Automatic annotation (TrEMBL):
<dbReference type="InterPro" id="IPR044674">
    <property type="entry name" value="EDEM1/2/3"/>
</dbReference>
<dbReference type="InterPro" id="IPR001382">
    <property type="entry name" value="Glyco_hydro_47"/>
</dbReference>
<keyword id="KW-0834">Unfolded protein response</keyword>
<feature type="region of interest" description="Disordered">
    <location>
        <begin position="517"/>
        <end position="557"/>
    </location>
</feature>
<feature type="active site">
    <location>
        <position position="372"/>
    </location>
</feature>
<dbReference type="GO" id="GO:1904380">
    <property type="term" value="P:endoplasmic reticulum mannose trimming"/>
</dbReference>
<protein>
    <recommendedName>
        <fullName>alpha-1,2-Mannosidase</fullName>
        <ecNumber>3.2.1.-</ecNumber>
    </recommendedName>
</protein>
<dbReference type="GO" id="GO:0004571">
    <property type="term" value="F:mannosyl-oligosaccharide 1,2-alpha-mannosidase activity"/>
</dbReference>
<feature type="compositionally biased region" description="Basic and acidic residues">
    <location>
        <begin position="538"/>
        <end position="548"/>
    </location>
</feature>
<dbReference type="GO" id="GO:0016020">
    <property type="term" value="C:membrane"/>
</dbReference>
<feature type="binding site">
    <location>
        <position position="475"/>
    </location>
    <ligand>
        <name>Ca(2+)</name>
    </ligand>
</feature>
<keyword id="KW-0325">Glycoprotein</keyword>
<feature type="active site" description="Proton donor">
    <location>
        <position position="117"/>
    </location>
</feature>
<feature type="signal peptide">
    <location>
        <begin position="1"/>
        <end position="21"/>
    </location>
</feature>
<dbReference type="GO" id="GO:1904154">
    <property type="term" value="P:positive regulation of retrograde protein transport, ER to cytosol"/>
</dbReference>
<comment type="similarity">
    <text>Belongs to the glycosyl hydrolase 47 family.</text>
</comment>
<dbReference type="GO" id="GO:0005509">
    <property type="term" value="F:calcium ion binding"/>
</dbReference>
């Protein structure tokens, strides 16, 4: 079993070869140890300010040194920052926060919550923290990782989202009331990312709890979007989940669409699912054909491919990192360098940048301390060791500290032209921006494990491997250990039999070289038929035929804020600022 599982974990490492970046010939590469400590200090300035001034509210208001609820009254910043604490090495505070969350967070409340945001921030944050609990020194209960208080909290939160999926198309509403379900009169319009950004969290939850409903709804949602693409292979920005008709027909890689593409790739790696990867690669062809111009990506009409908006959105800066995950390093670096020129121009990425004019778009001049360009730098540095990527990290630290740092944390930059600030510190600053900066400067962090070390855990369902690396970050930068999906098979037909396990293991050991060759030739995303079960090459096809059929359950919903959107700028849907 360990050999099979380590092959699975090796997929991400194979895609991202680990190079320890050295200074360039002129010795000018930023000092990683220095900036690692600077990033850590940034984290604690923001984190301590939240605890002192804003807890138990969702987020800190750094200009008035108080707090406010933004996404549902979950003490959201605490959930979002929890796994960052461990990545920075603070096990004692991790342990304390686990107790605080158990005592204070309640999902049985009369609150309208974003389905998308609750999933990526709350469900994703709790799942990641649950899977990292033992590493953080938490005294885990018997049966972990197949049980535990944080897992139960994640499951409770996810179940609160399921009513949103009850639509004729299976694609969900964007907002759900945690106590009463979907409100009568709720808008049926949701964005593409809000429909296609569940497979990472929900498949993990199904694997750990044994309840297939979560993964099932996520897969149905992905398929409905795939079936709704245009004849030229593109998807729009917002869709009516009752009728399946596109409301906003702008196609691109940025806001409203972004994490749909991200989750096809990450879901493929996490689940070894060739179909998800094939879907992304088809989209990638259409994106290159119709939206890419000189290594920039524009917005086009989804049916005709004509340009509708020649703008770069800051949310698009995740794309080079995603390209690195499929091995497209050269294209990723060229696009990254385009985006980096914008950062150098303003000291941050404006929400919208007009490419032909080389300047910001009116009312979209702000920078809410987003992580996407830093995220791409982290992935690309792991793949190339290019010191230019460390320079982006250095520039980010210097800019954020100079422009955004205030007495009570770090404030959103309202306008990059004059450095006016806004009274908000989004929880993703601690969940993503600081985390990716730290990992960029910390090449030996446990997150970067290349499989050379791992832990063996005995569960009620057999032995499994954890902590071997290959972590999959959800779109809120919460790392999921892919090995965990092999630990907890509760469905009777998927439970490990000791005799089968030993027989498969020794058969696999005898045929190790043959198996490895066959695995590589058949493609890295071959989906396991029985997760966690060892299959020799001979019985792989037979086992696949026994795989239970997926249940058809409704779908997903759209991200972020309650839907207060308006159509503007050539039909694109933008969210009102709050």
């Amino acid at each position: 079993m360990p050999f099979r599982l380590l092959i699975s974990l090796g997929l991400l490492c194979a895609l991202l070869p680990l190079h320890h970046g050295a200074p360039g010939p002129d010795g000018s590469a930023p000092d990683r140890a220095h900036y690692r400590e600077r990033v850590k200090a940034m984290f604690y300035h923001a984190y301590d300010s939240y605890l002192e001034n804003a807890f138990p509210f969702d987020e800190l208001r750094p200009l008035t040194c108080d707090g406010h609820d933004t996404w549902g009254s979950f003490s959201l910043t605490l959930i979002d920052a929890l796994d960052t604490l461990l990545i920075l090495g603070n096990v004692s505070e991790f342990q304390r926060v686990v107790e605080v969350l158990q005592d204070n967070v309640d999902f049985d409340i009369d609150v309208n919550a974003s389905v998308f945001e609750t999933n990526i921030r709350v469900v994703g944050g709790l799942l990641s923290a649950h899977l990292l609990s033992k590493k953080a020194g938490v005294e885990v209960e018997a049966g972990w990782p197949c049980s535990g208080p944080l897992l139960r909290m994640a499951e409770e939160a996810a179940r609160k989202l399921l009513p949103a999926f009850q639509t004729p198309t299976g694609m969900p509403y964007g907002t759900v009331n945690l106590l009463h379900g979907v409100n009568p009169g709720e808008t049926p319009v949701t964005c593409t990312a809000g429909i296609g950004t569940f497979i990472v969290e929900f498949a993990t939850l199904s694997s750990l709890t044994g309840d297939p409903v979560f993964e099932d709804v996520a897969r149905v949602a992905l398929m409905r979007l795939w079936e709704s693409r245009s004849d030229i292979g593109l998807v729009g920005n917002h869709i009516d989940v009752l009728t399946g008709k596109w409301v906003a027909q702008d196609a691109g890689i940025g806001a409203g669409v972004d994490s749909y593409f991200e989750y096809l790739v990450k879901g493929a790696i996490l689940l070894q699912d060739k179909k998800l990867m094939a879907m992304f690669l088809e989209y990638n062809k259409a994106i290159r054909n119709y939206t890419r111009f000189d290594d920039w990506y524009l917005w086009v009409q989804m049916y005709k491919g004509t340009v509708s908006m020649p703008v770069f959105q800051s949310l698009e800066a995740y794309w080079p990192g995603l390209q690195s995950l499929i091995g497209d390093i050269d294209n990723a670096m060229r696009t990254f360098l385009n985006y980096y020129t914008v950062w150098k121009q303003f000291g941050g990425l404006p929400e919208f940048y007009n490419i032909p004019q080389g300047y910001t778009v009116e009312k979209r001049e702000g920078y809410p301390l987003r992580p996407e360009l830093i995220e791409s730098a982290m992935y690309l540095y792991r793949a190339t060791g290019d010191p230019t990527l460390l320079e982006l990290g250095r520039d980010a630290v210097e800019s954020i500290e100079k422009i955004s740092k205030v007495e009570c944390g770090f404030a959103t930059i309202k306008d990059l032209r004059d450095h006016k600030l806004d009274n908000r510190m989004e929880s993703f600053f601690l969940a993503e921006t600081v985390k990716y900066l730290y990992l960029l400067f910390d090449p030996t962090n446990f997150i970067h494990n290349n499989g050379s070390t791992f832990d063996t855990v005995i569960t009620p369902y057999g032995e499994c491997i954890l902590g071997a690396g290959g972590y999959i970050f959800n779109t809120e930068a919460h790392p999921i250990d892919p090995a965990a999906l092999h630990c907890c098979q509760r469905l009777k037909e998927e439970q490990w039999e000791v005799e089968d396990l030993m027989r498969e293991f020794y058969s696999l050991k005898r045929n190790r070289s043959k198996f490895q060759k066959k695995t590589m030739s058949s493609g890295p995303w071959e989906p396991p038929t029985r997760p966690g079960t060892l299959l020799s090459p001979e019985n792989h096809d037979q086992a696949r035929e026994r795989k239970p059929a997926k249940q058809k359950v409704p779908l997903l919903s759209c991200p972020s804020q309650p839907f207060t959107s308006k159509l503007a700028l050539l039909g694109q849907v933008f969210l009102d600022s709050s």
